[in-house]
UniProtKB/TrEMBL annotation:
InterPro entries: Methyltransf_11, Methyltransf_Superfamily, SAM-dependent_MTases_sf. This is Phosphatidylethanolamine N-methyltransferase /phosphatidyl-N-methylethanolamine N-methyltransferase. One of its GO terms (molecular function) is S-adenosylmethionine-dependent methyltransferase activity. It comes from Rhodopseudomonas pentothenatexigens. Gene3D superfamilies: Vaccinia Virus protein VP39 (3.40.50.150). Residues 48-144 form the Methyltransferase type domain. The keyword Membrane does not apply. Pfam families: Methyltransf_11.
Length: 218
């Protein structure tokens, strides 16, 4: 495994990505993005999007949800705010520049936390997961979608090679599911409730954790 990505590298890389992000990454990530949003819509309520970026996911929600987004990269958020200003997304209540390692929200604020193509890229994935777990309500879920490391075979070898070439772009193709699983096992009130490859090619994996405990009254 290569070491986790540095925060400054991520900020620099995604500032560069901001002008072309929707055109380049929108079509590539659409299946994973929609799958994560569909899971969140099924739960409804107050949803936190970690790594909201340019707001590509705004179209994937509806009035049954109330979306708050955070991202480390201000140039990406400028794109998201422009989308909000169009008036097309009344369910998006706020986007803020914020470090997911130390969120400014109170405990148990959200019904669901969604992180699309994020958890493999942060400086400390376990800490970000713990912050997601802290701000979600008991009975709520953390929904992740990402490409996860193949671990064996030719695909794993290609991913290890690609990791060295794509690091400066803010990408990390060789992150293993085992780290997510180990975090849940070490967290007393977190359980893995779903792990599935997404069609059509199984490139992306959707992973859901639930914060156990009695759901809070509305």
């Amino acid at each position: 495994m290569t070491p986790d990505l540095d925060k400054s590298l991520i900020e620099t890389a995604y500032a560069r990505w901001a002008p072309i992000y929707d055109a380049v990454c929108g079509p590539v990530m659409v299946k994973g993005r929609r799958a994560a949003a569909a899971e969140a819509r099924a739960l409804g309520g107050k949803i936190l999007e970690v790594g909201v970026g340019t707001g590509l996911s705004f179209d994937d929600y509806d009035a049954s949800t109330e979306i708050t987004g955070i991202d480390l990269c201000e140039p990406m958020l400028e794109k998201a705010r422009a989308k909000m200003a169009s008036g097309r997304y009344p369910w998006v209540k706020d986007v803020r520049q914020m470090d997911a390692h130390a969120m400014e929200f109170d405990d148990a604020t959200f019904d669901c936390v969604v992180a699309q193509f994020v958890i493999t890229l942060v400086a400390n994935p376990e800490r970000v997961l713990s912050e997601c777990h802290r701000v979600v309500k008991p009975g709520g879920r953390i929904i992740l979608v990402n490409h996860l490391y193949s671990e064996v075979g030719v695909a794993a070898a290609v991913e290890r090679w690609a990791a060295q070439k794509t690091r400066a772009l803010g990408l990390r193709p060789e992150f293993p599911f085992a780290r997510l699983q180990a975090w849940a096992q070490a967290t007393s009130d977190a359980i893995l409730v779903e792990r599935r490859k997404l069609k059509p090619f199984g490139i992306y994996t959707l992973v859901c954790f639930e914060r156990t405990g009695t759901p809070m009254a509305a």
